[in-house]
Amino acid sequence: MMQWETVIGLEVHVQLATQSKIFSGASTAFGAEPNTQACAVDLGMPGVLPVLNENAVAMAVKFGLAVDAEIPETSLFERKNYFYPDLPKGYQTSQMAQPIVGPGKVEITLDDGSTRSVRIHHAHLEEDAGKSLHEDYHGMTGIDLNRAGTPLLEIVSEPDMRSAKEAVAYIKALHAIVTYLGISDGNMAEGSMRCDVNVSVRPKGQAAFGTRAEIKNVNSFRFVEKAIAFEVERQIELIEDGGQVVQETRLFDPERDETRGMRTKEEANDYRYFPCPDLLPVTLDGAYVDHQRALMPELPSEKRRRFENQLGLSAYDAGVLASSRAMAEYFEAVKDVCGDAKQAANWVQGELSANLNRENLEIGDSPVTAEQLGGLIQRVMDDTISGKAAKQVFQALWDGEEDSADAIIEARGLKQVTDTGAIEGMIDQVIADSPVQVAQYREADESKRGKMIGYFVGQVMKASRGTANPQQVNSLLKQKLDQA
Amino acid sequence: MHDKTLTELAAGLQAGEFSSRELCQSALDRIQRLDGDLNSFISVTTEQALADADAADQARAAGDAAALAGLPLALKDIFCTQGVRTSCGSKMLDSFVAPYDATVVEKIRQAGGVSLGKTNMDEFAMGSSNENSFYGPVKNPWDLSAVPGGSSGGSAAAVAAGLVPAALGTDTGGSIRQPAAFCGITGLKPTYGRVSRYGMVAYASSLDQGGPMARTAADCALLLETIAGHDVRDSTSVARVVPDYSAELDTSLAGLKIGLPKEYFGDGLDPEVETAVREAIKVYESLGAKVCEVSLPHTHLAIPAYYVIAPAEASSNLSRYDGVRFGHRCEDPTDLEDLYKRTRAEGFGEEVKRRILIGTHTLSEGFFDAYYLKAQQVRRLIRQDFLDAFDEVDVLMGPTAPTPAFDLGAQKDPVSMYLQDIYTIAVNLAGIPGISVPAGFAGNRPVGLQVLAPHFAEAQLLGVAHQFQQATDWHLKRPAFGKEMA
Amino acid sequence: MAIEHADVLRAAHLARVGLSEDEATGYVDDLSRILKMVDQLQAVDTQDIIPLAHPLDATQRLRPDEVTEHSQRERFQACAPAVTDGLYLVPRVVE
């Protein structure tokens, strides 16, 4: 059996979270009535002209800095010419020869916690197209140009990935970077991040790349994995059956988990790129780049390192908590309230994540705020409540019963009894009520006593309705039973 | 009234000799009576014009008259005008009523100018004779068998025939200056970036520039003051203060250094045109200017470079005319390809298609470097020729066109038509300003003197033209056409 | 560089301009003569000359990221050839 190696490169289109379009003052908000956010410039009406959005430039530069890329002093907009109904001007304003972001690299983390680097070939700014609505309009296709002119950053990787898992880890890393930077909402369901996946296979050990197929518009982490898995298998089967992979564009069908060639005739594209005469060269000096750098937040890889090194979290915990900006910010807020990173990490990844997953919520939608969770952890740490009671309190917070852990503890009477006198009283009562067990205990071997004490602890806890501090009960019981 | 300049009419309005309504009504009457023979207008906007004239009269009565208040003029049908058809001389846009005003149109309105309508032009500004219009050719008022030049032929003919005192045109390779020369009027192409291109239907974006066409340089100065300036909607418009051009018209010419590019006086130059131009230069010498010969060694490459760059940009600029959002759409398209191909085959005229094909071909794979990049390199050499010349002299002078207006239908071959622009095209490639000034006649047809100046030296250019018009009366000559009508 | 019939058809297809065979033949002739004139460029040595895309050595000005345009759909679609429910209509697109 021949051993095959998969080679994957990705082109990821990220919609930038600007208020207005890349070349016009129309809104980029999602979901408006058709063509109500397409102004004269977006519609390509006669005589209109583009003017570049400063925020789109700033966002692209921040991305470049986040992936250690070179930011060239001059970049150029060019026209990519082709006809399609969702492309109003008959050309897409894009960048080719001189993109705004040069070569860089992204660190990806695999499931086993290991990291590796994927090279970025370049990233460039361009305008998005509109949408074709294929529902039947009197046998016609409807065109909505609201999306036309939305700024896109197209991030082109080198063919550095060797498995679907690596590809997914790469997209997740990009997703984390763009959401951390706040340059995109990263909402894949609304098309804020769209991937074109280039896949080829080659015999293991062979240096030359195989012929690749490009799978267009794969729009979720899961679909990327499935599309690649299908495509790799298809290509290997094809070659092993004596066939050849054809360089082509394919579409992923999520209903059947398969890719298929596009039905439209694949004609030799000739986009006739040339510098857009309506836009001038964009020049960014060192001061501008430094200014953007100063505005950047801490990035996921930096955060992960800090969580590990300064907060003493495990590599795994640090990786999970730093994976999204929302998660990391929540965690840090919890930590700041309760003062203990490990406790905060345990609660965020344990009880909170379990509840979020069960109800399919994002961390931003959590009914329990970071302040509330931090307050709850404080009460566990200062022994106000037991760990068991804490779970009850969390659930009550989740259900919105009260505003704070303290209010719930108060209302439900969950405060631990830590008054030694009161606990001693309960212990004396239990010892008095259990002469047989006491006698057995005292006759027993030291090695067996540890197990036997459980009975007495249980009785005391029962008597206290769970509010006695179990450690205190344990040590006082030991003292009293061992005394005689 | 129709013989007067903008400046004279402004004074008449100010003195209360006539109202704007009277002035505009008389011009509209004249258009109605004469334009059947000239075909210089595509649309005449009578009602809107009279309403604007009334508004200007009221503003003046209230003591609130702006620079062009109540003055009639015409707009080349390439400038978008809200609520008025903007056809660009094409079947493609025959049904297009612009939903917005071009920036220059807005500025004219704000200054109180009254547009009487939209003038005829070569389709999408592609042409040098105005014979490429969907609305038919325009006649030259000096000789109805001659072309008015192009592409702003309607504007030039309308001004020359006294239908309007001034008009706006656009110039991509000579389209203001050459028709101004052919029709015996004054036409200025400003520095690239001086006048906003927003709302001006694009032909070749890196060359297009709007500008004034009028009887005198003084009128051109008045119009340029109004339309020039930075526009936030045009990335290529320049943020630079607009000088008071009118105030600088009288600067003395003593010591002015004039360069005569030897390449502009070579083979192919009509002897009568040459004589007229050399006579004009003598006038300048008599006014104290010094004349010397200079060389623009890459002149012969201007037309070849232009016919790569302009069609390349045009092929892309005109892709938006696809029958989907505005403009012509073919009947019952069977599929998308059919919609595109038939719409564009029907909507565009022959010359437009020719340039789209040339531009598409030269940008396509395997040809881009040899044509497009090469042409851009040569473009730099051509600009450098001018920069070098302006190290030696203040202005350059020569003929605007190698011949006077030719007969309608005389130029059948596209290449020989292109060669008509030999003296004007390099100016657009370099982005410098140029003006054509009436300087005599060849037979019964006017001759234009072209004056060129460095980037943003419009004030000097207008002053140089104005001083000539103080010393000569070529700009005062009127064609016999329409003369019997008061 | 000569231009052939196939080049004209290819350019016409890329530019989506419908041409009959006869028209194409006419354009081969026109375009050949135009390109012959253009070919004078090839005689010039332009080594090390930086291509000039704009006549002025200016750089792009940036616009503040503000929403300044609001819906004018009715106005813009008043000049559209085919519209339903606010959508522009084209013959069915098959992917």
UniProtKB/TrEMBL annotation, chain B:
SUPFAM superfamilies, per the entry: Amidase signature (AS) enzymes
UniProt entry keywords in alphabetical sequence: ATP-binding, Ligase, Nucleotide-binding, Protein biosynthesis
Secretion signal, residue range per the UniProt entry: none
PROSITE patterns in the cross-refs: AMIDASES
Domain named Amidase: residues: 22-462
Domain of life assignment: Bacteria
Active site residues of this protein: K76, S151, S175
Catalytic activity line of the entry: L-glutamyl-tRNA(Gln) + L-glutamine + ATP + H2O = L-glutaminyl-tRNA(Gln) + L-glutamate + ADP + phosphate + H(+)
Claim: Protein biosynthesis is one of the keywords in the record: yes
EC supergroup of this enzyme: ligase
Role noted for this protein: Allows the formation of correctly charged Gln-tRNA(Gln) through the transamidation of misacylated Glu-tRNA(Gln) in organisms which lack glutaminyl-tRNA synthetase. The reaction takes place in the presence of glutamine and ATP through an activated gamma-phospho-Glu-tRNA(Gln).
Quaternary assembly: Heterotrimer of A, B and C subunits.
Family: Belongs to the amidase family. GatA subfamily.
Family annotation (HAMAP family): GatA
NCBIfam families per the UniProt record, alphabetical: gatA
The name this protein goes by in its record: Glutamyl-tRNA(Gln) amidotransferase subunit A
Organism the protein comes from: Chromohalobacter beijerinckii
UniProtKB/TrEMBL annotation, chain C:
Catalytic reactions on record: L-glutamyl-tRNA(Gln) + L-glutamine + ATP + H2O = L-glutaminyl-tRNA(Gln) + L-glutamate + ADP + phosphate + H(+); L-aspartyl-tRNA(Asn) + L-glutamine + ATP + H2O = L-asparaginyl-tRNA(Asn) + L-glutamate + ADP + phosphate + 2 H(+)
Keywords: ATP-binding, Ligase, Nucleotide-binding, Protein biosynthesis
E.C. no: 6.3.5.-
Top-level class of the enzyme under EC nomenclature: ligase
InterPro entries per UniProt: Asp/Glu-ADT_sf_sub_c, GatC
Complexes and interactors: Heterotrimer of A, B and C subunits.
Role this protein plays: Allows the formation of correctly charged Asn-tRNA(Asn) or Gln-tRNA(Gln) through the transamidation of misacylated Asp-tRNA(Asn) or Glu-tRNA(Gln) in organisms which lack either or both of asparaginyl-tRNA or glutaminyl-tRNA synthetases. The reaction takes place in the presence of glutamine and ATP through an activated phospho-Asp-tRNA(Asn) or phospho-Glu-tRNA(Gln).
Family affiliation: Belongs to the GatC family.
Protein name: Aspartyl/glutamyl-tRNA(Asn/Gln) amidotransferase subunit C
Classification lineage: Bacteria, Pseudomonadati, Pseudomonadota, Gammaproteobacteria, Oceanospirillales
Gene behind this protein: gatC
